[in-house]
Amino acid sequence: MPSFDVVSEVDLHEVTNAVDQANREIGNRYDFKGSDARVELNDTAITLDGESEFQLEQMKDILYNKLAKRGVDIAALEAGKLESSGNRTRQTLTVRQGIDKDTARKIVKHIKDAKLKVQASIQGDQVRVSGKKRDDLQQVIALLKQAELGLPLQFVNFRD
């Protein structure tokens, strides 16, 4: 019986490379000269640290461009609150890995509402879809690509 898995994964090595490139560009830009602006990566959290909110927005724009060039979907980032203290401003961006339970339930419900002859089951942080025909599975992939779920999806482990 053909099946595939719906996952939401980010290549953390590419995120590390993008953060390094962003730091290099921030160090070279004239408008950041003399400031102690930097982007740091801790596990799955990216911390932007700058002198003002405007500078933070500039850094975020640089980081997003570097991530996009490296093929990392920006929808996988979840922006935290701006924290200001004295003359420093910080913001944490969380890199979301895996599909949370609520989103997984939405995916399963979306597939069942389409009335296709497939079964969808939640398995940890991924959703397995199986059916009798490959065409039905391809319809599910097309359906999920058009769905607005708020996080990037990949379709892996396609078995025939």
Describe the protein's architecture and organization.
This protein has 160 residues and is of the alpha+beta class. It has two domains: 3-8 and 98-159, 2-Layer Sandwich (Alpha-Beta Plaits); 12-95, Alpha-Beta Plaits (2-Layer Sandwich). It is 38% helix and 32% strand. The chain is built from four helices and eight strands, in the order E-H-E-E-H-E-E-H-E-E-H-E. It has a four-stranded antiparallel beta sheet, with helices on one face. The model has no long low-confidence stretch (mean pLDDT 88).
Secondary structure category: alpha+beta
State the share of residues found in helices, binned by percent.
25-40%
Low-confidence stretches: none
Strand content is: 25-35%
Radius of gyration: 20 Å
The total of beta strands comes to 8
What does the main sheet amount to? 4 strands, antiparallel
Strand order of the largest sheet: 6-7-1-8
The CATH topology label of the largest domain is Alpha-Beta Plaits
Mean pLDDT: 88
Distance between the termini: 6 Å
Looking at this protein, list some descriptive labels.
160 residues; alpha+beta; Alpha-Beta Plaits; 2 domains; four-stranded antiparallel beta sheet; 8 strands; 32% strand
Please write out the topology.
Blueprint: E1 3-7, H1 12-28, E2 38-42, E3 45-50, H2 53-69, E4 77-85, E5 88-95, H3 101-113, E6 118-123, E7 126-131, H4 134-146, E8 154-159
Antiparallel strand pairs: 1-7, 1-8, 2-3, 3-5, 4-5, 6-7
Overview in brief:
The chain is an alpha+beta fold. 38% of the residues lie in helices and 32% in strands. It has two domains: 3-8 and 98-159, Alpha-Beta Plaits, CATH 3.30.70.860; 12-95, YajQ-like, domain 2 (Alpha-Beta Plaits).
